[in-house]
């Protein structure tokens, strides 16, 4: 069976656009996985999706206002980032991601597929993916970085420090591990990535905890997180 290097993620209202993209990619002999077409009739849907993401090298995310409302898309993007895939949002509307998606997408390459007609944008997408998939490891070239949506200066600074993994001077590895565990209770596996980003630019432990607490949506859970991190079992006061 031909390898399916590209996983296409989309919300249901964007189905037609997603399958148009699939048609363009497959016409260029690029292997694509998309639901529900490629979900095995007798398989568990979630398991098939996870397996497909694991086997892929690039996720193409059809991005619109409806994407911001899709829990399923958010889970797929989180899984793709966790697996180390390149996530390429193809914006079909002039909208920006909500907070729950912003972290995953702020440092990625973007391709704007608006205004219509979309065909020239699809051609660019095909060319970009052919170049990316031809590399030994799927590391995206910089051809699309100029299409990134505008972000604040602080967001750009955080993106620049995303890959910095040096141990901060103000916390031990054990403290960071405990903070990660506490944060993961509320936001899942992405806690590891958010901790790395925040630790790279925080000046002290209280600032690190405060920054990470902002990722917890519920006020009650946010307070629980901060209390646990500052307790004897989490981080030093």
Quick structural summary:
The protein contains ten helices and five strands, in the order E-H-E-H-E-H-E-H-E-H-H-H-H-H-H. With 237 residues, it is α/β, with parallel strands linked by helices.
Could you walk me through the main structural features you see in this protein, from its secondary elements to its overall organization?
By secondary structure, the protein is α/β, with parallel strands linked by helices. It has two domains: about 5-150, Toll/interleukin-1 receptor homology (TIR) domain (Rossmann fold, 3-Layer(aba) Sandwich); about 175-230, no CATH class. It has ten helices and five strands; from the N terminus they run βαβαβαβαβαααααα. The chain has helices at about 15-25, 45-55, 70-80, 100-105, 120-135, 155-160, 175-185, 190-200, 205-215, 220-230, and strands at about 5-10, 30-35, 60-65, 85-90, 110. The chain has a five-stranded parallel β-sheet, with helices on both faces. β4, α4 (about 100-105) and β5 (about 110) form a beta-alpha-beta unit. The termini are far apart. The relative contact order is 0.10.
Relevant CATH superfamily of the largest domain: Toll/interleukin-1 receptor homology (TIR) domain
CATH architectural name of the largest domain: 3-Layer(aba) Sandwich
Envelope shape: elongated
In the CATH scheme, the class of the largest domain would be Alpha Beta
Low-confidence stretches: 150-165
Give the SSE string. Answer: EHEHEHEHEHHHHHH
SS class: alpha/beta
Beta-strand content bin? 5-15%
Kindly identify the CATH topology of the largest domain: Rossmann fold
How are strands sequenced across the largest beta sheet?
A: 2-1-3-4-5
* CA-based gyration radius: 19 Å
Name the average pLDDT. 81
> How widely separated are the two ends?
56 Å
* Total domain modules: 2
Largest sheet: 5 strands, parallel
- Helical fraction equals 40-55%
